[in-house]
Amino acid sequence: MLSIGPTTKVFVRPGPTDLRLGYEGLYQLVRTKLDQDPLSGHVFAFCNQSKTRLKLLTWDGSGLWLCSKRLEQGRFTWPGDGPVDTLSAAQLWALVAGLEIRGWKKHWLR
């Protein structure tokens, strides 16, 4: 089970990411594009072009976790191009649940 504490930062990579990447590819994306240390214990979130899949990468002290979610209907609200956003753990779980992180409204594409 993935648990995120209140001091853990969540870095959201804006725009689409090729989610065919595995541990090593996402690890390098965090280092080069997000300019962060993947072994910091923070969570790094990525979304695909159609906003129907996401992946989370984090380090738990002994290894990397790679978690993924695929929506059967609807889309994630995901920031477009721009600076890397930092979210709280509560905002991450709202985003994963399909809520908008700005305004906390339900956002499903019908």
Describe the structure.
The protein is α+β, with helices and mostly antiparallel strands. The chain has one domain (10-96). It has 2 helices and 5 strands; from the N terminus they run E-H-E-E-E-E-H. It has helices at 23-32, 89-96, and strands spanning 10-12, 43-47, 53-59, 64-70, 85-87. A 5-stranded mixed beta sheet has the order 4-3-2-1-5. A hairpin with a 5-residue loop joins strand 2 (43-47) and strand 3. The longest helix is centred in the first third of the chain and has 10 residues, at 23-32. The N and C termini lie far apart (31 Å).
How does the SSE layout of this entry go?
Elements: E1 10-12, H1 23-32, E2 43-47, E3 53-59, E4 64-70, E5 85-87, H2 89-96
Parallel strand pairs: 1-2
Antiparallel strand pairs: 1-5, 2-3, 3-4
Features:
110 residues; 5-stranded mixed sheet; 2 helices; 16% helix
